[in-house]
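Training component of the fellowship. As part of building independent skills, the fellow (R.M.) carried out the full modelling exercise for a liganded target. The chosen ligand was flavin-adenine dinucleotide. The inputs are recorded below so that the supervisory panel can assess the work.
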Amino acid sequence: MKILIYAEHREGQLRKITYENISLARTLGQPFEVLVVGNEVQDIQEQLGRYGAEQVVFYKNAQLENYSADGYARIVAEAVKERQADVLLMGATSTGKDLGPRVASILNAAMATDCIHVEMEGDNLKLIRPMYAGKVQATIRLTSAVKVVTVRPNVYQASEAPVTAKVDTKEVSAPDFKTVVKEIVSGAKGKLDVTEANIIVSGGRGMKGPENWHLIEDLAQLLGAATGASRAAVDAGWRPHDEQVGQTGKTVSPSLYIAVGISGAIQHLAGMSSSKYIVAINKDPDAPIFKLADYGIVADLFDVVPRMIEELKAGN
Amino acid sequence: MNIAVCVKQVPDTETKVKLTEDKKAVDESEINFILNPYDEFAVEEALQLKEKYDGEVTVISLGPDRISSAIRSALAMGADKAIHLQVDENPQDPNVVANALAAELKNGGYDLILLGKQAIDDDHTQVPSILGEKLGLPSVTVVIKLNIDGDKVVAEREIDGAHEIVECTLPAIISTQRGLNEPRYASLKGIMRAKKIQIEQKPAQLSDDQLNIIGFEYPPQKNPGKIVGDSADAVPELLRLLHEEAKVI
Ligand SMILES: Cc1cc2nc3c(=O)[nH]c(=O)nc-3n(C[C@H](O)[C@H](O)[C@H](O)COP(=O)(O)OP(=O)(O)OC[C@H]3O[C@@H](n4cnc5c(N)ncnc54)[C@H](O)[C@@H]3O)c2cc1C
Ligand SMILES: Nc1ncnc2c1ncn2[C@@H]1O[C@H](COP(=O)(O)O)[C@@H](O)[C@H]1O
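Fellow's submitted model of the complex:
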């Protein structure tokens, strides 16, 4: 069973999910290659080799500088055929979710979205994916000849296993694009997205107002964390929508999720319950978030968070 | 403008999902079903475009008999017509759903096809993209801002940590994300009107499932957590635990 791993990149930089998927593929004991599609992508050989990719194919064209869902899909589908891959492995990121189903459709392949477990079972894959916002987990089998699988970021750790990567670059002809990305508008500069972050500090209605968010931001900065929010905070206009965690926001699985002044409504838990460690800071001992939290402090957040900031600044 | 909106009926977000005894399926007996929250944005956007450019809004939904309540919700918001593609049970493979929807949409002469970005039961996030390929139309997913001028479409979509501005032309497929608009509540008049609209029913054209669910499990139970303390004085201990026990900071 040959696996082709789609290398995600943005603005010329490879993204972490690619290394996570290479690390996963190594454990499956099946032959795999990494596919890069684009124009200028930095450090392909060095970075992919570091995580254990021996064979890399780079499908290159100047027109691929900007992402086009239908255009990229055509080329990825082409690559799956040319490399005779049985499985296309991608991240369950905004790119994977946009591109994966299109490639699958072109190849008449079935696709499993957002898998949290991938293993070999005989000569097929056993896949587990959350459904109903994580309330249950389904074991899935794909029976199509080619299979497309996207894996939730942060579930598999990227581990280094240095080899010398062989990179075959191929100039491809770009198809006509039906959709064209004209511009990428970045959020606040250097802002880490919740779906990529290893640590998230999230605030809820208990924060009382946007003027107090410096507490969340300072704590996040000291921990190298991204900032998230409950829907209550987003609906109140305190925080941008792209920070919302939950059933109608983003699904995250960081190593550490710190919920500050968040009650833990079922729709919020849907987005963060697969975090490895959860900390809750809430003054209500009966808040449902404590049922899920590994560690909790039942106290006023306006006492607790400043103290955390102080202790971390002091290097304790 | 001739607009189609594909909607799905899903369990209420508050629903506790219970599995059948053999864990092969979800027990639907106590589930309260609603219109998929993301699909409400699609319906609202269609109605706003109709108000601006005139035209007709057709709701299309595939599912078993019970989905008529979700179709009525969309009609009550103000959609004009509805088509129910009938199946005994929802297919497990989103590709099968997309195929059946494509077969219906293909001959409808729609200028715009709107969908939610994700159905919150199966969480596939696949149908809008697959439809783009099946129908050979441009499709833009996870859209939070939509501007249509003549046949020119400018859409802003959400990606991890940024937004993309995407251009294409009509006819096109758009999947909607929270932030695009505020879905209206159905008025009493709308609800009464919806009751009178005849929903067109036809059997869905089904292909074979290539995605099979072998079984379900509940997510692993977490051990009850530890309350570290009831004042800010617990902070040093919390940080110690995070550092030494959890090893996450
Ligand atoms: C269809 C649908 C989809 C939804 N999707 C989402 C979603 O994606 N994400 C989401 O988050 N929600 C979602 N919700 C909303 C969800 O039901 C809750 O309303 C929301 O999560 C509540 O946010 P909160 O915890 O910040 O606010 P609250 O529930 O009001 O909780 C605030 C908490 O702060 C605590 N607090 C107050 N002051 C202090 C203080 N000084 N110190 C310490 N603690 C304090 C309180 O004890 C309380 O527990 C959805 C709802 C619906 C119906
Ligand atoms: N059975 C269905 N009938 C009509 N539309 C559907 C159906 N399933 C999914 N959709 C549409 O496709 C979107 C994405 O669904 P999914 O790909 O299943 O997450 C939904 O928000 C709906 O707009």
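The panel noted the following from the submitted structure. The mean pLDDT of chain B is 96. The longest helix of chain B spans residues 37-53.
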